[in-house]
Amino acid sequence: MVNRNVLTFTSALLLLACSGCRVTFAAAVPSETPTLAPSATPTTQWFPPTPTASPFPTANATPTPDQRPGIGELLLEDDFSEAEVWTTGRDDEGVVMVSGRTIYLGLNAGGSYLFSTRTSPVFRDFYFEMTASPTLCRGGDEYGLLIRGRDGDHYRFALSCDGRAKVDRYLGGSLSRQAGWVRDQSIPSVIPGNSRLGVWASGSQLHFFVNDLFLFSVNDTQLYLGTIGVYAHTSGAGDISVSFSDLQVWAVGE
Q1: Are 201 and 209 within 8 A, CB to CB?
Q2: Number of Cβ within a 10 Å radius of residue 108
């Protein structure tokens, strides 16, 4: 059970930096040397609203193997047979659970976020793939991957349910757009469906893929290492349900 005094204090501090947005509950990102811990109900965090989007450009996604150079040995393969390595929880508005070789996120509150992160390991340079399978999703609702998560900071690679993609950075209580929104035929806009999401990260360079097609790059010097995770967001008053599976992470060389 979440300590209500701690929850109230944390929410009060974060509300100073955010108004008009809410998160049902979110997983805290572990430090650089996390340890495995039993599943726990995530604590509430408040995030500022996503910046106002500009008109949506169209990406030219093409097969570009050179955008993923130096991929080496397989570092991690997770079939979700061990639930305790993920933060999970449930409340009246959302649930994160590991079941049937997937991690499932369900949210029934409008304008809310739901997060889950893997407790270990910490990655610096890597290539990360995961399959996302939304079953209930509409319009501007989002789902996607978290990377380089540490002490609450992270990058978010998101697909919207109407066929767009973006990357945001959450750092020190502020959310900033790093790439997108863009539209592309490789981004599904029909639900239910499946997409293989990929992120190549080396130093300040981040490359993003959907179904093996390169979408865009980000060059950012703020976050260099951290854990990985998943998230979902309802932009309106509806619900969202999405499962993630087949997690793989490879080393990236020089």
Answers
A1: no
A2: 17
Q: Where are the beta strands (DSSP E) in the chain?
A: 71-78, 89-90, 94-99, 102-107, 113-117, 126-136, 142-150, 153-160, 164-171, 174-183, 195-202, 205-210, 213-219, 227-233, 240-252
What is the distance of C-alpha 26 from the center of its chain?
11
Of the candidates 48, 41, 45, the one whose C-alpha atom is nearest the C-alpha of residue 18 is 48
SS3 79: coil
Q: How many residues make up the chain in this entry?
A: 254
Per-domain residue ranges of the chain? 4-32+40-48+60-252
Q: HSE, CB side, 13 Å, CA atoms: give it for residue 21.
A: 21
Chain segment 90-145, per-residue pLDDT in tens: 998 999 999 999 999 999 998 999 999 999 999 999 999 999 999 999 999 999 99
CATH topology of domain 4-32+40-48+60-252: Jelly Rolls (2.60.120)
Q: Which residue has the tokens 């079941």?
A: 99
* Dihedral sign of CA atoms 196, 23, 216, 140 in order: positive
